[in-house]
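Dear U.,

Please find below the material for section 3 of the report. The protein was modelled together with zinc ion; I have listed the sequence and SMILES used, followed by the predicted complex structure.
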Amino acid sequence: MDIPFLPGYPPIQPGPLARFLPPLEEGSISRALEIYGESGDFILDPFGSSPRLVVEAAQAGRAVLVAVNNPITRFVLQHTIQPFTLTELQTALARLAAAPKDGSRLEPFILDLYRTECVRCGASVIAESFIWDRDSEGLTHKIYVCDRCNHAGEGTTTVEDWERASLHSRRGLQHAFALEQVAPSGDPDRRHAETALSVYPGRTLYALITVLNKLEQLTLPERLKAAGYALLLSASDTVNALWGYPEGRSRPRQLSASPRYREDNVWWALERAVGTWAMEDPRVELVEWREDEPPRPGTVAVFPGPVRDLVPTLRDREVRFLLTVLPRPNQAFWTLSALWAAWLWGRAAAAPIKVALRRRRYDWAWHAAALRTVMAGLKPILNPEVSIMTFIPEAEPGFMAAALIGFDSAGYRLEGRALRLDESQAILSWSMADRLKYPRSPGETQQRMASAAIGALRERGEPGPFSLLHAAAWCEMARKRLLADLWALEDSHLLTTLSETFETALADREIFMRLGQYVEPESGLYWLADPSEANPPLVDRVEMHVLEILRQKAELSQVEIEEWVCQMLPGLLTPDRRLIQACVHSYAIQDPTESHWRLRVEDEPESREEDCQEIHHLLGELGDRLGFTVQDEEFLNWFNEKGEVVYSFKVMETTAIGPGIEEGSEMPLTYVLPGGRASLVAEKMRRDPRLREWLQERGGVIKFRLVRRLVTEAGLNQENLAERLKIDPPEHHDPQLPLL
Ligand SMILES: [Zn+2]
């Protein structure tokens, strides 16, 4: 069931509405399609939630059919495939800027809405943003650059600023238009539309609708008008009150104003949007879906509606490859999509998603049911041999549970899984399956979940978070096709019931230990009360695989290294990026262009071997010189006159300290490591409280260079040795000279 995780890299240019679209890493779809299926395959994406997935699939030579019901996502997809040129975007903005408005032009008219005075010299300036504070019930600061006195940054707002902001009340023409466009009077959703509009400050709404109306009045060629819509769309996203100040929620899910937010200058938001939409041409073709004309390889056919309406236009058993990013419920994005679509293209365009206005909350049981409905509806068009790959870029436990339960109860069997815990990214693969029937009792469920969780901890050989154990338990249930039956019995409470069963299993202190004091089951780390059957720690295996590949190949990119390690450690073992990076930094250096890594010269096997032998030898000599009896075996043991071991050293090239910490030996053990390993040891200690405790209480780490130094110290003796061993701890990069 374990498949390799397919790492990509964070996109260099995140693209439009990136804060709402799934954070799928660049390149992971391309990589998936190098491994699964072949060029020319026909691929269906039933959810159409990620433009990146669709583009990369087409670039990989696939014929892609995607159903996109949300007109906003569809617009982004369309203009990711056929991006505007910089000139088109600039021209659209310039035409808007120059459009006549109240005896002036539109640009100065909008900018003037943000006019204020410099707090230092009193000059009239245009503010970049105003900061609103819910507790002060108004704006508290302004951000601007003053051309006269060069003051740049924040300033306190004045009564005049308050007055100017309140000029644009919620009762003006622009506000009425913004509302009417979404839900005219008499529409049952009108009050929901009103609530949604409230995330826009009055002046912002006034400015946006003024620009929109101007865009409608201009006679522009279709492309330029669409470019204008694109700019307005991004501006409408960035200027609402969802985004906190100074930092705030990076990926909001609920439509509510942040306690402190920025009211950004709408005109400058439009200007910034030019860079967002000027994307690189992906060189794939876009067509509309036509029943009698399946897309050709390298082409994307878009079906502008829900996938249930697409199904009747496809032949039975036609689809052999289903590839998608599972959508995540996002009340904020879905509601705003309904607003934006209505503003830009009218009520009819927004109709398919207008229902989003009404719903305030989406829980995971709702989502499981939604996924079940869609996936069950697809069955007639799927070939019995179909491959199904689903990417979940924000795989928190609730989302994983909803996906597993939704697919299982729609009649699919979990075939593969990979989960990257720290990045919360999962890949699940599925096949069509017949339902299995087993009679079972709740006791069995608990035991089954517990043993899957135990298995995951043993496999990893180190403490793990709740999300790991949760994924192990739920995947096991899905793999055995047990969730569907349970859902049939328990109906909508299954998620709650199963979560409780699972938490009861985890609370068994004879099986699971909690590291640290936590109340919530989701916090902290879990470990096994009896770790005797556990593997060596995952961190040590990651280090070994990184070193292995660095010694095999002269030059490697970060992604190549990650790919290799993820292949060696698949499924729930998938190591996170930070750990891999810590290993890479410990053994390799980057070339000047920062594109490739190569092994450090001193970590070549021969030179490192020599190094280790030299240190081992020096330690032996040092022990002799200080009057200990030295025994040279796996460890270098130093005995005193009474025949007791007082020091025990182990010289190693890696930081694979892990196995030592579960062993019951009472003997203090000092690991002797190359200095380049220091930050890797620190990273391992950060991750594993057992290692931290062990190193602090019973063991220690010293660097090679300390041994070399101690050998030359004339005043060293048995009495001061313990102190001298501490003078250059691993975290020191620049040790002080010993005070004589
Ligand atoms: Zn000034």
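For the text of the report, you could mention the following: The chain is about 45% helix and 15% strand.

Regards,
Y.
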